[in-house]
Amino acid sequence: MRLPAAKWSRRVAGPLACLILCAGSAALAADFPEDATLRLEATPMKGSKRVPILQIDTKNKAAFDLWCTHVPAQFVLVGDTVTILLGTPTPQQCDTERMDADEDLLASLMAVSSWSRQGDVVTFEGERPLRFRISTN
Q: Are 89 and 71 in contact (CB under 8 A)?
């Protein structure tokens, strides 16, 4: 029994659209940097050259070195959607300004819901965009 062209196209269109979307999501996730160091696009605080960095390994495990706190993390990626799972922070002895900046940055990281990449810049979107530049050295 042959299906009329209209019915055939409806039966194929749904699964085909799903296949295209899934392939697009996989390609997008493939662009997520792995085994890379990213630096937050921020001005160093007074008296320091340090800016927060993100070290990502090949298994989407990562670590943030903030203004004065080290935080292990994991990334869960589905297409352009990302969830950042933060571990227990290890604070260093710092001044109040740096500790307050860390708390603010941690809150922003917990609010991240999506990501995008343009060249060597990865942007995490949430309460406010956080732009990280992939280190090339």
A: yes
